[in-house]
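User: I'll paste a sequence; please echo it back and then give the predicted structure.

Assistant: Echoing your sequence first, then the prediction.
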Amino acid sequence: MIDPAPEGPAKRPTASAQRNKRRMQLAEQEIRLMSALVLLIGLGLFLALPFVLSIGSVVFLPLVAALMLTILLSPLADWLTKFGIPNVLASLGALAAFLMVLILALGLVLQPAVSLFDSLPEIAETVGEQFSELRDEFQWVAVMNDRIAEAMGGAEGREVVLATPSLLEEIAFATPSVLIEVLIMFLMAFFMIEARVRMRRSLLFDRASFGSSVKAARAMREVQDRVASYIITVGCINAGVGVVVAAGAWLLGLEAPIMWGGLAMILNFIPYIGPLAMTALLALFGLGTADTVLLGLLPAIAYIILHAVEANAITPSILGARFTMSPVMILIALSYFTWIWGTVGALLSVPILLTLTALFEHIGRPNLVGFIFGEPLFRSEMLDRSGVDGQAPPP
């Protein structure tokens, strides 16, 4: 007969397992508390960042714009160096090419706009006549509103007019600071483009391990290729939209069709808001130059159809899944950077979002929801921890 095993040694592993389990529970609670604190601090920084960036826009806006220009123009500078052009001249040539394109685009819009500026009073008068006709047709709505106001016993209010500076005064006050910021931006962009080779060498050879060097090089190449390819591709699409809008404006008899094409090309770089602004402008000037309301709204309706085809069929088929971004994220980035930097922030919002998306694909997308409950912030850390614990990684 075999004697049973003693009970003492069998209880020791059980007590040790309980102690380890208790330690793990305490550690998980501590991680959850620290995760919640870090998340709250990060949320506070995210909410405070717009005020810091807006107050210091003289410093931060040229820096971010110069960084986007560096990412966009570095491939062109690399291409010029292949022909034996020195790095300094190649960087200057890339920046000069961008300036030529920018001046040409602005010239297409600003030069005809100056000639149309004199006709604004006539356009406003015509639009007023169009709306007065519509108001006469819906006079019963105004009568009903007056009857409701009399029944509610509304008191007469006193009109207060605030003295504000005129448009010319605001432009005169803002011009020196804008010129200084633009000059700083282009100087920063030139020095960043010129220093791109040294920056690549620093990323490759100043790392502690070969793996981190390869990862840094891949991240930098991916960000540069993605942002530059996106801006160039979208620029070509918007140029095609501008050509179609200019031809349509010429066929519909609008003045300065080249201006309308250039304006459509520039505004199409701003998602959602730009096409809405273009539709409003076409409707305003159409009503101001047409004899009837239907003819006045025809240019805006044609542009809406063109934008619907371009945004839902042409652009997705050309860009593909590589540049697909969530519309919610685009709207958040658009509202966030427009709040901080106005129109320039709206133009920079999508390139900034694309840059952050490319970086997160190499670093790892943050696990914000799981981070609140004590999980690692990045999935790579989760896989590493699973490997250390000897458990299978989550699906």
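Residues 70 and 194 are 9 Å apart (CA to CA). The radius of gyration is 30 Å.
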